[in-house]
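Let's see one such:

===
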Amino acid sequence: MVPAEMTAARRRAAKKPTLGIDLGGTKILGGLVSPQGEILASSKKKTRAEKGPDQILERLVNVAIDTARKAGLEIADVAGLGIGAPGQIDHGTGSIVYAPNLGWRDIPLVEHLSEALGIPVALDNDVNVVAVAEHLWGRGQEVDDLVAISVGTGIGAGIILGGELWHGFNGTAGEIGHTVIDQDGPKWKASNRGCLESMASRMAIALRLEKAMKNGQETSIFEETGGKASEIRSKVLKRAVAGGDPLVIAELEESARLIGIAVGNVINFLNPEMIVMGGGMIESLADVMMPIIEKTARRCAIANAAQDVQIVASELGDSAGLLGAAALVR
């Protein structure tokens, strides 16, 4: 294609909507997004990670097709597909190197999806795309340096520096959940002992609550969850807080304190203009967690470092991942 034809093709593509998919450990959420960031249609399926990579790849293809068709379009009518996926990404090959929440190693995701759908496909870490969404369409539209921190099943961060997504030397920047805060803390999957994720994520809280219930401690969530950590979701915790459950509230407050320490360290090390807190835990429990996170972070930051740093909760909610993923194609 000659340069003039390439330019015309790019102009046409720029006017088309893009598909974004947020691939999570429990659900696959897809959206068709206009160039202005408007979600035109969406689709959702359970991930079912236990079924293995082949079935998840098939589900990703189906979500992309279903989402386009809900807007009255075929796949060929969209500019491309962006994926936000958990774990370590090889940006050169478009592969997921390791995703512990999915049980994946060395999955050539971009190659598979581009062949299956016949459109351009872009891939990045799930929290990196959240940072992109916050910068383009969320709380960080007016700043050039921000860190987006997602607190859910795990904990991760995406970093925007000078208006650009920062991947680091070998593409693993932002793994704040794997920073060690207690060398004698619990061992956590493929991470080091006592990492932030092992002590402050929703799964960490759920495992502690499960242990407490087995030891006979009373809590309002027992009847709803059967005492199983796998059933303790953010909405379950939110209902327990609304009912004044002291055990759940204490766990959330401790989690917020530990996250606040990590946020204070981010301020000391990177000194971004804004830190945006998001993910399922913050979306459901911001009233409990955000005041403690902010207070602790400012206490842990060195003199004047946090003075003008904004520490805010995301307003994009569950859509942040798919919005940022769709922007990758642009």
In short: The chain has two domains: 3-131+321-328, 139-314. The domain at 139-314 is CATH 3.30.420.40 (Nucleotidyltransferase; domain 5). The mean pLDDT is 92. The CA atoms of residues 72 and 328 lie 23 Å apart.
